[in-house]
């Protein structure tokens, strides 16, 4: 029997019904009677998973409210049992209960031959993106009616599924759940790095060799649509594919994997300006100093830990950029920052970042006055 849930992507931003029909509520060891209900993925106002019980009586509602994290949902027709981790509950009337779920995971078999994942709010790239590794073929493609979807996203700044991701081994062998989670996490961090927002596969399904559903993971960690600038020279699939090759190689190194996760966490916060423009400068320097330490001291062993500590932050970052073949100069397109840097004899972009950061975290009267009197556009271009 094919166990794939019914996924129908409707209008952009419209909720997606994942499961519906008869179900049982299991309270501890006790099974309640059969009810009708559904599990849906809701996009607005924030992405979330919800369980709706649509024909319960007031006693069942009271029991569920009293036991917010201690019940299970069983869909007999789908061979599907959910351990509920509830975030909140609400009733629309005496017959309906809505439970917001943190996530859903289920595993029928540990032998997966193909993954399919739905991705919201990624960049509009017309050609398929092939993120191939030595063992896996990862293909990301736009869904149909993408033109209308991106019009909706740019107008509303909301959420909509934009891409489908397929993953399989080159030799068509199976892989296990642990490997699937490893791949999905890598894709999550890489796409977030490309986009400058948290972009996660939210509806993830694993299939066996007969194309039956054997594993699924339903998440909701994704940012709403926002305009962000990108480090990519051009938003094209070939550039993304080339970048992924190096990303994947580092992802396998346990030390680098932790650094990548923390760096991208800070990078996304900078891109979203979560702490304003000023906070972004502080976070950006923190990330660059950490990367400098890993590259110069731990990885390439160019300087000792003592020698690294004696370098100024400007020199640490400059040496990092030099080792990575990244130009040190302030980009010529940043006219206002370029002009201000020349007026203050700043030698490169590293000094621009560290000088402004120092004015922020050392708020003596002199620094406060200098920062408050900065010409328009200098902070944003930094």
Features:
382 residues, alpha+beta, seven-stranded antiparallel beta sheet, disordered N terminus
What does this structure look like?
With 382 residues, this protein is of the alpha+beta class. The chain contains twelve helices and 14 strands. The chain has a seven-stranded antiparallel sheet, covered by helices on one side. A seven-stranded antiparallel sheet has the order 8-14-13-9-12-11-10. Strand 1 and strand 2 form a beta hairpin. Helix 8 packs antiparallel against helix 10 and helix 10 crosses helix 11. The protein is elongated.
- In which range does the helix fraction lie? 25-40%
The first-to-last residue Cα distance is 57 Å
Beta fraction:
15-25%
Please state the structural category. Answer: alpha+beta
Residue-averaged pLDDT = 83
Radius of gyration over alpha carbons?
Answer: 25 Å
Number of helices: 12
Which blocks of ≥5 consecutive residues have pLDDT under 50?
A: 1-6
Q: Which geometry do the CA atoms define?
A: elongated
Largest sheet: 7 strands, antiparallel
* Annotation, overall tally of beta strands: 14
What string, H for helix and E for strand, traces the elements in order?
A: EEEHEEEEEEEEHEHEEHHHHHHHHH
How do the strands of the widest beta sheet line up side by side?
5-4-1-2-3-7-6
